[in-house]
Each structure stands twice: as C-alpha cells, then as structure tokens.
Here is the input.
Amino acid sequence: MIDRLETVASRHRLLAVFWGVNALFVLALVLFAVR
Amino acid sequence: MGPFLLVTLYVAVMLLPLALAWSGARPARSVWDELATGAGMLAFAIILAEFVLSGRFRAVSKKIGMDVTMRFHQLVARSALGLALIHPFLYASDFSRAQPGDPTRALTVTYDLASLSTGILGWLLLPAFVLISIGRDKLDYTYETWRMMHGLGAVLIAALLMHHTLSAGRYSADPLIAGVWWCLFAIAVSSLLFVYVVRPMWQTRRPWTVAAIRPVASRTWEVEIEPDGHEGIRYEAGQFAWLNIGNSPFSLHENPFSISSAPASGKSLQFVIKELGDFTRTLGRIPVGTRAYIDAPHGNLIVMGQPGKKIALIAGGVGIAPLLSILRELRLSGDGRPTLLIYGNRQADQIVAREELDAMTLECGTRVVHVVGEPEPDWTGATGIIDRALLETTFAGETMADWLVVMCGPGAMMEAAEDTLIEMGVPASQILSERFDYD
Here is the structure.
C-alpha cells in the first residue's frame, strides 16, 4: 500500500509504481501489436 | 479509494482505448503498424490524464501525496513523449490513399494532409513543451507566466492531437472509441476549467484578509491572514496552502507556502515566507487589510497518528515553516513526546522565531540544535551544515528506531540526511519529508 507518500519509502515506491506502470504499458502494447 | 485502486484505475483508463481497439471488428495489421498506432493511442491517453494529475484534486493528492502526484505527472510525461516520438516512425505500411477493397485501411496509412498536419504540429510542439517544463528553472519566466504557458500549451497540444486522433486514427472510426476519446478530452478540459474557473469562483465566496506582515528574520516575513466572513479551514500541522495575496482568484498569482501556525491556535493562518522569487520580494510592501485567497489544505507532512516515541524535526532555511506549525501544535496540544529540532541556516540572522524556540526549550524541554554555515565570531552553536557528523553527534546514544523524523528543506540537504538517518537505523517509513521547491 502506498500510504504516506511524502516519506522516503514512498518515493522509492513512486519510482517502483512508475516503472511498474511503464512495464504494463509496454506489455500491453506488445500484446496489442502481436495479437 | 485507496492508492492501489487509484493506480489500477489510472492504468485501466490509459489502456481502455487499446482494449477497445483490440476487441473491435477491425483486423489487426502488421506488428509494426499496430505498435505505431498503439504507441500513439497510449501517448495521447497519458497526455489527457496529465490534466487531472496536475489539478490539485484532493481525492488524488490526499491518498497519494501532493508532491508525489506532481512527480508522477512529471515522470509519466516523459513516457508519453517517448511513445509519441516513436509513433510515426514505427509504421511499416505505405502512407498512401486508401486502396480499393481495403475499407478498414489494413494495408495503408493515411497521408491526408489535413489529418496529419495537426498530428505533425502536436508532435513538434510536444518535445519542446516537455523540455521547457523540465528545464523551466533555468528559464527567466515568472511563475505566473510559466503557469499560463503550461496551461495554454497543454490545451493547444491536446486539441491538435484530438483532431489528429479522430481524423487520422484508424480505430477512431469506431464510434465507441471516438466516444471514449471525447470523454477523456472532456475530462481533461474540465479539469483545467475546474482549476482556473470553478475553484476561483469558490474562493471568491471564502475571502481572507491580511492581518499582519512582520519581518521575522533576514529577508524572511511572517504573513498572517484571517478568514473574512467564514469559519476558515480545517487543517493539520505541517500542511500547506496555495496563497494569493492582492490579486483576483482568477489570476494565476498564487504560490505554495507551508502554514506555520498551529491549528489549535485559532482560525487565522500564518506563513513564514522567504524572499526567493517575484512575489516574495514584494511582501514587505503589502498593506494590512489586503484581500487574500487560499487553496488549502494540501500536503501529508503530518505527525499526528504516525509511529515514533520521539519526534525529530530537521529544517533547512525556510523549511522551518511547516515544522514550526508542528512544534506549536505539539506545544498547544500538550503532546508529551520528547522533541528535537535541528535547524540549519547559512547565517544566524536567518533564524526564524528564535525566542519562541528558546521558550519551547524552557517550557516543553524541546531540544533545539542550531547549525549555522557562515557564523559570526561570537556564534557559540554548531557550525557547518546538517551532515553525517552532526547527525551522529546529535543522536549519540539514541535508539534510532524510536524516532519519527520530519524534514523540510532543500532537496540536496534532505537526500543526504535521509540516507544517513536510514543508515543510522531510522526506519524509512518513519521519515517524513517535503521539499520547498517541488512544485
């Protein structure tokens, strides 16, 4: 859970969420393209 | 709605046009053509969502955190830019007229200039827009000019891309997908209208008045405002407000400042503001009685309800403002937890509320460690910066896991202090921090 995002841990989670979201986007794009 | 659900909703909405294109009746083309179209669709969805992310909506920022929401807005803009830039280059099919017997354009990509021109213009403007945004600190624009340019530029790019998507987009020929694009575009424009029209209208009904402006340190002022004909706001110590003094709420003249007063002290709000920018340099000339407007409260730099048997506050310069609010609230609420303040300034005459901090030491046992970078010969306190040596000396003999640490100051100072404190044993979840240059 992302609770207190002004914490240090939360900033690490922000980057994790950002890269996770990007990975999902890339995966979705590839699946869409090769369908 | 929790943060996990918010992120899930975000991803789902971003992928909705792709999902609808996938489930539609149109046959898939070559992998490269589909990748090109998919990248364009995804980039446009991300761009439209940027309007909502930057709209200071408490439903989002309260759960996620204001500075994190804005950081995500900035980061994901780079993703959109990358996808948009590769979009036209991935097409493998020829740009040509639609071929007879190919009504769904499975074999060619449109070369109709009217459809492509808006896309090309948007494609050219987008990198300039993002690069200017990233490097705006180095540009000589006022904050208001910057906001105006950013808002208008975003609308222009969104409108160009909307035209391009609907006129050139193969999948946008599907009324359902076109409808989704219109919905997302309407939400984006509504967000902007809410920020620049609806919220200011609400603010006109809840005006504030400047009750006092007094110098509290070298080039630093304390501004006090009181509600005019209403009950003020409910906030927590450590939060901040967008403050607009002496201008119409419809103007863009508002800046984020931490509230330095304690919620328990009454309805009026105080802000400690340093002369750093265009607006702050004029503070000393603002007469008492001037009309003010605020958008508040924002921010999650809140101590109440956090774990930690002891509270350490670390301030760099004007970063003292929210920490002063927290100290004042702890004092007024009779919170008995041991409290430590490490307060760094370049020069001793920049220390804010020095007498009040001394009084807190006497009355509440608050330990205050002043650190001055360029001390006068008669300075007897710590010198230098808030670094590892100072933190290790200050926390010598302490069980670090007992401490909740709250920090506000310049980014470089906080990053160094955060790393040191974590190495010294403070759990990362017990370090709250806020940068005063994050907007």
